[in-house]
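Hi, here's the filled form for the chain we discussed.

Project: internal
Contact: R.S.
Residues: 435
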Amino acid sequence: MSKSLKGSATEAYDALSPFALEAEGAETPALSDRARPLPRISIQAFCETPQTAEALQAASEDRRLSKAHVTIQMGGAPAAVAHYQESPTPNLIILESHLPHGELVATLEELAQSCDPGTKVVIIGSTNDVVLYRDLMKRGISEYLVAPISSFELMECLSGLYNNPDSDPVGQVFAFIGAKGGVGSSTICHNVAWTLSEALATNIVIADMDLAFGTTGLDFNQDPVQGIADALQNPDRLDEVLLDRLLTTCSKHLSIFAAPVVLDRDYEMSPEGCETVIDVVRQNVPFVAVDLPHTWAPWTKRLLLQADEIVITAIPDLANLRNAKNIIDLVKTARKNDAAPHLVLNMANMQKRPEITPKEFENALDLKTLAVIDFDCENFGQAANNGQMVEEYNSKAKAPQAFRDIAMALAHRKEVKVEKKSPLAPLLEKLKLMR
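And the returned structure, exactly as it came back:
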């Protein structure tokens, strides 16, 4: 991958006065940082208690394990020993065992005779004993967990086994979707992505999934010949070399995967193909902003639910409230181990238009609003016509601060105002000391 795409999401940003990132800018790691998606592996678990089996079942239904094939059986370590005497071992074995130290070690030695060389083993036991832990590690056990465990604790453990901390981290995916057509979800996506690339001085790719009517090229004043449709035609062929050719560079840290925006061809998009393309992109940049159209299809649902963070844009009316509630209910049900989606109210406070207040919106959805962006046809319209972001067109407009708040929330960063000091400040300080 060329250097134009490579970058670090932890580089400080100090150019956009009067704001700067806080010295201790990173917040507590988000759920999506602590447990990353697993590759396509086979996992077989042998449990002794229903509680552990339930935790494993809940973990297997999480988006992070969507590519893994998980099988759960009862019987504990003895059942595993008997099973693998006649069957090949999977990539990962999870054993729950409450046997005493000596019996557990003897059972594992018997299991080792049937294990293939590359198989990892995780033990779930009831003894919190450092001697036992060290003994198990010496015998090649990958990890030891003390019961009871939660599904997320299990996912954190497995993520640590299959995501090498010494290698480049897998980039985060932010999905932007509108509660209704025409609410400005793409505009929010593009401005937030641009702000994030500038604020953190890190690389980000915008993937425009609206192949027929996408506006990413227009908003960034680009007319790319190739784009995301070429990648979706043969997703299995996409690698970092081809990705470099298909991406269009808009600034030092921002690239776009533009939509073709032609109507004389049909677009057949599979959930698997879309997911494969996004996976390749996230392997090469720290952040990916997925601009989803207001179309409900299997691939839209897959990308939405697989994202690390979700931003729902709505305008304050009844149809948007209903649609936003449906999306939020789906997301909360399908992503029980993830944070709630982010809600952005756009085009608010339009004159002479009856509106639902932000407080009423929040109460109906049981969700706090991340940002409320006022209706501003002049700045948004001129920026769009110029192929610019709103902050590029008018840095004094109100919307750029809202975009910055959204960007920092998605990246789990904090921002503090930097006090502007007068040129006379040193002299005034001296005069104070002379008194």
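Let me know if anything looks off before we file it.
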